[in-house]
């Protein structure tokens, strides 16, 4: 009997342990599920600003416009209907604030009670008008027709250069500048961190005596432990003004500031991963090299570095991964202008910073909210690709041995 | 003549080595210098702000005066909550991967997923925590939602620490215990875990330092911009130190006037990390000696 309970307890514990083992897998699957569930919603929503109507005269042949075209029209870069597939006639813009140009306050009514009817008349009178007004003022017997905006396509989303998620009358959700901004800042970070990190790793693994090692190791651990918001704060009060002074810029919040901060943050990862890789070089190989008359430095760059090159590339990839996903520090020092970067001395905006800055203000379930989740999907896929590459590289390394 | 050439090539060989080693040493110490500059700057600027009042009073005057008490309490709640979740599950999960799982596709899958979870950016945890805990489960912006999100973020670290610590225990101990008739769980709980305990606890302390400074996961799950009162239940919103630092250094009502408060907050955050690291190092040394004495 006692033995039976013993076995039962053993089985229960094993079950509990197995369940705990699956928690991470379940979490990853849930992250994928929720991220994509919200994010993919962007492709089935109209980019017209919520609660608004874009309408034209009923004889106007233009039935559908793209969000980008609407913005061009309202920015007056497109001024003729033929540019968007209509007749050769100038586009007459109308938004709700212009109503007083056409009607007196009396005609509209003190509480706007006649406004729907007036809008109806106006659109019916003006064959070349593109009217934009709140949906609540749409008359029941509206004679014009509403312009449908094409839903955002994957191509528009990934390759669009304009990120204006709250603009009227049609939101612009192109994320190319955000993706390039993220990669640009991360590239700069790795250019700064890789030489510094590799040199430190070589020094720690092969040159330093144990005493120095015992000082350096905790230092690197501490660098890894400093919160990103503190790095961001340091960047904001020290690095940003420094860059502004040195390069004589109007603002110091630039891609360079982000790269420097991210470079420092990526250092611990790069150092510890590549140091570990160098330490796995078999002693026999090192000693053979030394016995052949090579000195220590020749052994390092002819034997140890080639041997551990896959570990070193893993370190670099992981460093990039850390930089791509970093949020707070970047948000605080890069200036967050959503433009395609050309130099390191201009502000950029990254994907994580965009999510952190805008999610709080995006109404839940709206297209802006879903666009931010879609950005989260892109970020997730980027880091997933990085992790899988790392797994692949280290699996290959094991195979080669 | 031949002798002369070898000698000069020997010389240049030696010179190259000296030059390379000098550069490596220089770059390594510049890493130390970077850390010292960051730490030194924040500690020097922050120390004058720290006082008993700063640590125990509510923020006042648009967060330019007073203290950080609610943020401090909030961060403590979040750290405690996330660890309550991440420690047991993480340690059991580590035991599963290293002691129980058979070498199958499932174990490889679990390991792959754990690695992937470790690489997921913290802001994505924030998005996920908001959809699942805040909206789906209806916890709202609360300590519970924030703690669970932070706990998930810490999970891979705890698992990896446990796994590494278990790996360091020689198999002969397990075989010996099993040979004496102990069951698997008896072996794990009475032989393997006690031996791995020092390393596990060291890793856990370091992960506490990390969690206390995380900002992105709590942005949309718990952190309050300004809430000068203490939480009364796990369904309350709280202020948190890292978010407070972000707020007063970038978007507060008067950024210049709250600079001193920002230095003080950064100081406290650094102090938490420093203490966690010192404690971890001390434990490592303490247990290291003890093990050697046996």
Quickly give the structural class of chain B. Answer: mainly alpha
| String of helices and strands of chain B | HHEEHHHHHHHH
Q: What CATH architecture of chain B would you give?
A: Orthogonal Bundle
Quaternary state reads heterodimer
CATH topology heading of chain B: MetI-like fold
- Summed over residues and divided by their number, the pLDDT of chain A gives a mean of 87
Largest interface: A-B, 88 and 85 residues
CATH superfamily (homologous) name of the largest domain in chain A: MetI-like
N- and C-termini, Cα separation of chain A: 51 Å
Strand order of the largest sheet of chain A: 3-4-1-5
What is the count of distinct domains of chain B?
A: 1
Q: How big a fraction of the residues of chain B is strand?
A: under 5%
Give Rg of chain A in angstroms. Answer: 30 Å
Low-confidence region ranges of chain A:
none
What Rg of chain B, in angstroms, do the CA atoms define? 25 Å
How many strands, what sense, and barrel or not for the largest sheet of chain A?
4 strands, mixed
Reported for the largest beta sheet of chain B, the result is: 2 strands, antiparallel
What's the CATH C level of the largest domain in chain A?
Mainly Alpha
Task: Walk me through this protein's architecture.
The complex is a heterodimer of chains A (401) and B (294). Chain A is α/β, with parallel strands linked by helices. Chain A folds into 2 domains: 99 residues, D-Maltodextrin-Binding Protein, domain 2; 225 residues, MetI-like fold, CATH 1.10.3720. Chain A contains 16 helices and 8 strands. In chain A, strands 3-4-1-5 form a 4-stranded mixed β-sheet, with no helix packed on it. In chain A, strands 2-6 form a two-stranded parallel sheet. In chain A, β7 and β8 form a beta hairpin. In chain A, α7 packs across α13 and α11 runs antiparallel to α12. The radius of gyration of chain A is 30 Å and the shape is elongated. The two termini of chain A are 51 Å apart. The model of chain A has no long low-confidence stretch (mean pLDDT 87). Chain B is mostly helical. Chain B has one domain: MetI-like (MetI-like fold). In chain B, strands 1-2 form a two-stranded antiparallel ribbon. In chain B, a hairpin with a 4-residue loop joins β1 and β2. In chain B, α6 packs across α8. The longest helix of chain B is centred in the N-terminal third of the chain and has 46 residues. The radius of gyration of chain B is 25 Å and the shape is globular. The N and C termini of chain B lie far apart (62 Å). The N terminus of chain B is likely disordered. The interface between A and B is large, with 88 and 85 residues.
């Amino acid at each position: 009997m006692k033995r039976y309970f013993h076995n039962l307890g053993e089985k229960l514990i094993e079950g509990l342990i197995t369940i705990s083992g699956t928690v991470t897998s379940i979490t990853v699957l849930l992250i994928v599920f929720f991220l994509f569930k919200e994010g993919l919603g962007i492709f089935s929503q109209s980019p017209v600003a919520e609660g608004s109507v874009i309408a034209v005269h009923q004889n106007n042949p233009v039935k559908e416009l793209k969000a980008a075209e609407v913005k061009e029209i309202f920015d007056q870069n497109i001024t003729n209907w033929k540019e968007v597939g209509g007749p050769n006639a100038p586009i007459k813009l109308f938004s709700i604030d212009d109503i007083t140009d056409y009607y007196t306050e009396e005609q509209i009514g003190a509480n706007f009670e006649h406004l729907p009817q007036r809008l109806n008349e106006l659109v019916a009178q003006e064959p070349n008008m593109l009217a934009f007004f709140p949906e609540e003022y749409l008359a029941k017997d509206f004679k014009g027709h509403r312009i449908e905006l094409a839903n955002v396509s994957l191509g528009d989303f990934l390759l669009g250069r304009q990120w204006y998620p709250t603009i009227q009358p049609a939101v612009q959700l192109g994320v190319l500048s955000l993706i390039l901004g993220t990669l640009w800042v991360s590239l700069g970070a790795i250019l700064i961190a890789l030489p510094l990190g590799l040199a430190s790793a070589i020094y720690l693994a092969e040159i330093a005596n144990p005493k120095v090692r015992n000082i350096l190791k905790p230092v690197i651990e501490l660098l890894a432990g400093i919160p990103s918001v503190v790095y961001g704060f340091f960047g904001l009060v020290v690095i940003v003004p420094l860059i502004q002074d040195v390069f004589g810029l109007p603002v110091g919040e630039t891609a360079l500031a982000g790269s420097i901060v991210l470079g420092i943050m990526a250092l611990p990862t790069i150092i510890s991963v590549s140091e570990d890789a160098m330490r796995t070089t078999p002693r026999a190989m090192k000693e053979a090299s030394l016995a052949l008359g090579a000195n220590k430095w020749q052994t390092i760059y002819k034997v140890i570095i080639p041997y551990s090159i896959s570990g070193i590339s893993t370190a670099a990839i992981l460093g990039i991964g850390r930089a791509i996903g970093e949020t707070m520090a970047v948000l605080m020092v890069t200036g967050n202008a959503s433009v395609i970067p050309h130099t390191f001395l201009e502000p950029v905006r990254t994907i994580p910073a965009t999510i952190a800055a805008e999610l709080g203000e995006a109404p839940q379930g709206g297209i802006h909210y879903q666009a931010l989740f879609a950005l989260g999907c892109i970020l997730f896929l980027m880091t997933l690709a990085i992790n899988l590459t790392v797994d692949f590289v280290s699996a290959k390394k094991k195979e080669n041995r | 003549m031949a002798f002369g050439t070898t000698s000069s090539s020997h010389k240049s060989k030696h010179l190259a080595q000296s030059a390379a080693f000098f550069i490596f040493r220089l770059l390594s110490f510049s890493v130390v210098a970077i850390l010292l500059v960051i730490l030194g700057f924040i500690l020097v600027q922050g120390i004058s702000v720290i006082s008993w009042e700063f640590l125990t009073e509510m923020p006042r005057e648009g967060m330019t005066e007073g203290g950080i008490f609610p943020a401090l309490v909030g961060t403590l709640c979040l750290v405690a909550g996330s660890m309550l979740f991440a420690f047991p599950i993480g340690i059991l999960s580590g035991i599963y991967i290293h002691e129980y799982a058979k070498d199958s596709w499932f174990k490889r899958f679990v390991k792959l997923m754990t690695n992937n979870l470790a690489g997921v950016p913290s802001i994505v945890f924030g998005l996920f925590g908001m959809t699942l805990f805040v909206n789906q489960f209806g916890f709202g912006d609360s300590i519970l939602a924030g703690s669970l999100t932070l706990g998930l973020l810490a999970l891979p670290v705890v698992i990896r620490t446990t796994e590494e610590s278990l790996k360091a225990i020689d198999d002969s101990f397990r075989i010996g215990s099993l040979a004496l008739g102990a069951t698997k769980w008896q072996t794990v709980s009475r032989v393997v875990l006690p031996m791995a305990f020092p390393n596990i606890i060291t890793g856990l302390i370091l992960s506490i330092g990390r969690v206390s400074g995380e900002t992105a996961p709590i942005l949309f799950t718990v952190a309050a911009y300004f809430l000068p009162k203490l939480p009364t239940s796990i369904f309350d919103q709280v202020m948190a130190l890292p978010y407070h630092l972000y707020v007063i250094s970038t978007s507060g009502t008067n950024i210049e006037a709250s600079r001193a408060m920002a230095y003080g907050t950064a100081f406290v955050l650094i102090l938490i990390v420093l203490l966690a690291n010192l404690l971890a190092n001390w434990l490592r040394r303490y247990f290291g000696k003890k093990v050697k004495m046996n």
